[in-house]
Amino acid sequence: MAEPALLNVTDLRVHFPSAGGGLRRRPGAAVRAVDGVSFGVATGETLGLVGESGCGKSTTGLALLRLIEPTAGQVTLDGIDLTTLSRRRMRAMRRRVTMIFQDPYASLDPRMTIGSIIAEPLAVHGLHRGSRARRHRIGELLELVGLDPGHAHRHPHEFSGGQRQRVGIARALACEPELIVADEPIAALDVSIQAQIINLLEDLRDELGLAYLFIAHDLAAVGHLSDRIAVMYLGRIVEVADRATLFDRPAHPYSQALLSAVPLPDPVAERARERIILRGTVPSPADPPSGCNFRTRCPAAFDRCAVEDPVLTVRGDGHQAACHLPGGRPG
Ligand code: SF4
Q1: pTM over the 0.90 mark
Q2: CB 96: neighbour CB atoms within 10 A?
Q3: What is the CATH number assigned to the segment(s) 5-45+56-82+218-328?
Q4: Annotated domain spans of the chain
Q5: Cα(271) to centroid of ligand 1, in Å?
Q6: Which residue, judged by its Cα, is nearest atom 3 of ligand 1?
Q7: 3-class secondary-structure state, position 182
Q8: CA torsion, points 50, 256, 237, 331, in degrees to nearest 10?
Q9: What is the best residue among 231, 278, 290, 298 to mutate for testing ligand 1's pocket, by most ligand atoms within 8 Å of CB?
Q10: Spans in the chain with pLDDT lower than 70
Q11: What whole-number distance in Å separates Cα of residue 328 and Cα of residue 292?
Q12: Which residues line ligand 1 (CB under 6 A)?
């Protein structure tokens, strides 16, 4: 695969000082929330980033925009190194890469009208100056996300969860970004609304040529929208593949377990579906296991896994996995 042109993330790390405590926690050990993550997103591409809650995927998204400062690593957008920019220049870059947040209830200020919420980034970046031009742009954005432009004077509480998420999307689109980091954008919504928001994101991508980093814990949601999928476990990417390869031939036992939880549309196949139930819970990122950090829950773990950390290696065209076993299963 050619080098992605838009976003390149190299060996990104976000370590937090440990709060101490816990029986097994080493004194002074850092919490390795993100621990050496590398990936790229091409122009117009959607990369899904999937993993259980607490695996570091949201922290990765926040670190890209430096809403959390990375501990180490490099993030470039169109060749510009975001990690070394001054705060002022980084603020300006947030016009080109924006974020949609998980909770449309918490992420919109209840005291503001939705018009002023959407206008905020326009004011910050000095776009569509003048009240008439700004009103026009707000109307345009509301229409783009399927809301009535005549409702710009209303407050968030007058809208449903799905409509509020549409407002969040309009705000993210305001400055015509090239890349949107969508952090669990459907997780807080009713199941009946989730598909509408996914479809809206898909339509906007096709219409505006957007790239997404689509973060979710649910492989089914990620699968619908993503061109490629990166699977994260305990602060690391353990597998990357295009959507079809990941769904047909997942190479890492963790990806196989996540995939086994995805319901199948065919009722016969769905009845025959075997779920892989992982034992135990995700270990603390302040005290990860030796060797492979998935070994305490891996159904295929063997002796080597306790002593040797598997690196992400190429399995085929653009397919990479971090596991000592060729197909994630004992031979
Ligand atoms: Fe499982 Fe070992 Fe592969 Fe890790 S390296 S995923 S423990 S088989």
Answers
A1: yes
A2: 16
A3: 3.40.50.300
A4: 5-45+56-82+218-328
A5: 28
A6: 323
A7: strand
A8: 180
A9: 298
A10: 1-4, 19-28, 327-331
A11: 13
A12: 252-253, 292, 294-295, 298, 300-301, 305, 310, 323-325
